[in-house]
């Protein structure tokens, strides 16, 4: 069961970072390389605890749908989403935000189980864990850029 953790320092207020991370429109923008779009549940604006979103995207050359639900939220410090339906056997994605040295430390903690037993474990080692790490890092860096540019333009 792979666990991916990525941290990103962002020179923006914690509230701004928290809201950008749960904004459906921003998510779509920061994952444009996978053609990700919201097709069900909350499809625009901020998603809140108890709400879900269904994403459609192209990952590893295959069009997929995944539904995630926000199961915990402590604004502006933490929210947790879990997969309800999709390609993984399961996942829990914990987003945390801390004030550090006049910046926000955003941490993604992605804990997932691949489907297909042993075949899934082999896929993790061969490519899936790296693919998911790269996906999370790319999104975090895009969120950082958006948040910091908003602060410059204020």
TrEMBL record:
Keywords: Cell cycle, Cell division. The keyword Cell division applies. GO terms for biological process: cell division. It comes from the Bacteria. This is Cell division protein. It comes from Fictibacillus arsenicus.
């Amino acid at each position: 069961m792979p666990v991916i953790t990525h941290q990103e320092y962002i020179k923006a207020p914690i509230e701004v970072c928290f809201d950008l991370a749960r904004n459906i429109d921003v998510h779509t923008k920061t994952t444009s390389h996978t053609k990700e779009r919201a097709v069900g549940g909350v499809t625009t604006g901020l998603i809140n605890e108890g709400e879900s979103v269904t994403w459609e995207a192209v990952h590893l050359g295959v069009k997929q749908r995944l539904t995630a639900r926000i199961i915990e939220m402590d604004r502006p410090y933490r929210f947790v989403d879990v997969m309800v339906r999709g390609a993984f056997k399961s996942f829990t994605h914990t987003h945390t935000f801390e004030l550090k040295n006049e910046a926000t430390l955003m941490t993604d903690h992605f804990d997932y189980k691949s489907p297909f037993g042993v075949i899934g474990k082999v896929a993790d080692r061969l490519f899936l864990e790296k693919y998911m790490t790269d996906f999370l890092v790319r999104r975090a860096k895009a969120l950082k850029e958006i948040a910091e540019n908003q602060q410059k333009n204020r």
